[in-house]
Fold each of these.
Amino acid sequence: MKLIKLASITKKLAVGALAAFLLIFLPFHMGMNLCILRDDGGEWYRNVCHFMGTNYIVKCFEIVLLLCVVFHIVLTFILWLENRAARPVRYAVSQKSKTHQGSKWMIITGGLIFVFLILHFINFYFAKTGLVEGKYVVKVEKVQKAFSAKAMAIQQGQMKEADMQKLQKEYMSIMAAGEKLASDGKYYVNLSKQDLQTYFGENVEEYDYEPDFYNMARDLFHNPLYVIIYLLSFVILAIHLLHGVVSVFQTYGLMNEKYSKAISYLAIIYAIVIPLGFAIVPIQVILF
Amino acid sequence: MDLTLKIWRQENAKAKGHFETYKLTDISPECSFLEMLDILNEQLINDNIAHPVCFDNDCREGICGMCGLYINGRPHGPDEGVTTCQLHMRRFHDGDTITIEPWRAKPFPVIKDLVVDRSAFDKIIQAGGYTSATTGGVPDANAIPIPKHKADEAMDSASCIGCGACVAACKNASAMLFVSGKVSQLALLPQGKTEAAIRVKRMVKKMDELGFGSCTNTFACEAECPKQLKRTNIARMNREFICAKVCSEEK
């Protein structure tokens, strides 16, 4: 049974290429998360999030990344079905060969990582797209710019006296938002949807509010149940990577007698260091 | 040694098979595995119990690749680097239960009992596992200079006897180790190199057509290969395949 009429090796190469992109992406995400560890009230992390959320090149990569995840899952699932079909009658005694069994767990660990991804999307990505309510930040600079533009308009007589009062009222309410000011003074942070309404009124859209991932993450990492799920997910990711990284090299024919040892060690280091980097963040947040 | 054997019995390719249990007593530990089955068959015939158990075998010295039984969850049994015929009963314990199954793979249908049809391998070889040049007489030794390490590698890859243990061991019933051995032995030497690109494409295509699974890098094949072919052959075939697809002008 062949669900996709491509050579088996071509399909494997495609899965490997998609995986390779994800492998390159992971250190970036990890580096971003590690910014949370910095004791600066989220200054670095917020700046990184702002860059990732607004830069057009990053946005393009975001689409590529999502497609990579989807096709990696779809293709591997198809391969799994095809591979099962290659042995219609199973053995009565399960395999006892002396070999590492990493590949047997790939579909299971992969599935569990997918479940975690859904959770991750609900918690963070959907807040960004507006599907789920989260916490938000507003850039002070944006508010000031919009404000001075309006004040200018009034001064030049393009706006009526009545608007003046409205502007004053708006100014007062935004001043009240000052208690939400971040330590670097560049953002109003930790704002709920309600806060946005209270402080910024109907003009909130023009201030380009962004999700406050820093406070959302810290809130979640103070929940022990979420931390356990999070840490387990990265143990599962480590298991997935332990087989996956070497497999990419093997599938692309880069393993030979000369380099296979070095590549295997590098893969093990990658598979441990990356999940560890992710795992440090909630541990630090919940313990310290 | 007293043994309990659980053996797969299947009348013919279309019949439904089942496990049959036989008891054997007083088997010598010096006896080979196939000799043990011979003793069982003698008893089955003499005592008029059942038809003898069918199993493939020929040379009984580990070079022909005919024998191949899935013994207690491992192709060719518990020893490493041997075929079923080279396995001896001293590797088992008195009172053991031994489960014997035929190779299980879609391209290897069971013909009878423990005998499977492995002509799928022949079809893969027919698809490209050869050099098409007529070679004429035997050339002088060293007429074509070949570095020693290349000759060794090619010889190692060529040691495959086509028994099918790699397919039997693989959780996906993939024939990658077999095909990669054949691709490698020819691609490594100058005589085979000229047709390497078209060969790998044809052989992989045939392998897929026949319904073998794909490789998920478990390397059970390497662990079970009686000739201990290495996984580097599979990497080499992947490399050859990519080169053939990307660089070769042949379709």
Amino acid sequence: MEFKTFIFYWFALVLLFGALRVITCRNPVHAAMWLVLCFFTAAGVWLLLHAEFLAITLVLVYVGAVMVLFLFVIMMLDVNLLKLKENFRSYWPVGAMVGVLVAFEMASILFVAYDRAPAAVAPEHGADYSNTRELGLLLYTEYVYAFEIAAVLLLVAIVAAIALTYRRRKGVRQQDVGEQVRVKKGDRLRLIKVPTEPAAEAAKPGDAAA
Amino acid sequence: MNFAVPNLYAVAPEIFLLGAVLAILVVDLFLSDGRRHVSYWLTQAALAGAFLVTLGTSEYKSVHTFSNMVVDDQLADLLKLCCYLSVSLVLFYSRDYLSDRGLFRGEFFVLALFGLLGMMFMISANNLLILYLGLEVMSLAMYAMIALRRDSRPAVEAAMKYFVLGALASGLLLYGMSMIYGATGSLDLNKIAYAIFARQANGMVLVFGLVFLVSGIAFKLGAVPYHMWVPDVYQGAPTAVTLFIGSAPKIAAFAFVIRLLVFGLQPVVGEWHMMLVILAVLSMVIGNLTAIAQTNLKRMLAYSTIANMGFMLLGVLAGNPQGYSAALFYTVAYVLATLASFGMILLLSRQGFEAEELDDLKGLNDRSPWYAFVMLLVMFSLAGIPPTIGFYAKLQVISAVVNIGYIWLAVVAVVASLIGAFYYLRVIKLMYFDRAADQAPILARGDSRVLLSLNGLALLGLGILPGGLMYVCTRALEMSF
């Protein structure tokens, strides 16, 4: 066994374990952390396939941005976990049984099917080969239609999110920038004449001398 | 790397509609709440414009462009035209309903048009990637439309259920697609078909992926055993949205099935044929049996959808052009009937009152003999009673099944539609022979009344003279192969 193969199996094992922990973990913050581990190991597998750009994007976007946002949401929502897990205990034996059965069936089919198939050989590339460049070329030529549709999909998501969450409330205190800019000294500043105390006035020169 | 400049002419309808949606999105920002009818009419204008653009750019031969990702053929044009018509009718019928419930907003129209755009992507997709992306654009818009009425608990619950199960179905579909890619080495439907035909594909992996693909499709169609979401979503969603979900997306789903199974996977027809037989039989029997027990009209129509999708699959599983055109005809007939049935619920609803229980139809004949007659036509069509279009549609799919030698399947279909006739006829009994509990006059706009009447009459007219529509369906499919 090549060392690379060993690395792959190690990553795969960690990935599977992490994924299992994501769904079995009691604390959602811990689950999110396990998910981070999953992303890291998946990025590792991609690196083994020479997909450096994708691997780095996965770490940057998912671990760096999406998971942080996710953690924020979990902390802000304060989900009642005990209530969510109420039925877990009664369902899990059946669920686990079905899951193991399905996994076994799938594995038996795939092992047999790919056992007969000739192994695919990855093409060799020179030192100046950049998969970021190749990816960019493909994305904006061959796949440009799909790329545009993905943009439409994001736009739909934005419109949907705003339509579902934005509501005009009455009596909300808001900044009115125009009014803030137009404001004059007279609107905010009030001068009040305060009569001075003679005793305090007399003490002042002494302080200055000290 | 050689890259052919894409033929924008072939995707002109999509480009036009996207531009129109963006314009409406911006225009709507500058309108006060009292002037929302401007965005409403702009939406209708966009639909009419897309209709004209599609007709104008229609060509007899199939055009493949954008690196073979898009195909513009007669089938795509026909299905797109049907989608525009159906979305436009949805908006006409639901105008009063929306404004009574505070949903008459720009977002509703924009999301509806985005949903339509997703359907168009699916209809002219020639690549697994485009099929999937189109499906997601459509589904995302629909999830949001259901939840748009945020204060209604059933609507939010329905949206949540639909979202979670839809995500699961997308997962199944993607897993299946990845397996197909693994087996054939391509995402392009033509190349997949060629690889299988030339026996370059890994057969076992292919069938393995196919199982997931068919499951994903069944989920989206709402075929048994993947139907659990349909009744809850149909009942929980605001009726206007139910009407939207129940109409045009069914046409898109038909396109999805045809593109994927026929254009891409026709060489393995022997494999998916049996899977569809199981889905069709279960859907027809369970859908019709469960519908009998419903007291809510929307829920009953949801089970009727499940049963009707089973009938549609009968045509597809025949695996020959006759079957496909029968399935296409069935889909069009079904969408027409659905538009009229939910349109009637919208017509009878008013501010603070949803006419969604079966009892709300009691004595409709006393209140309005004409609308009772229109509803009678709709129920006849859904039940498949001559001389309505539903009869001819059922006849076509059943004869397609008989022609491939599946007599037992035809018998099951006939028995299932007999069972179904019970609950459709019960509606007619309620309308004509029961006393009305509610004597409120029917308040509806003139245009929706006229269109609903025309819609009902179309069910009758196309039932008496189905030849023209059948010819259009057959020809569109013939010219696309």
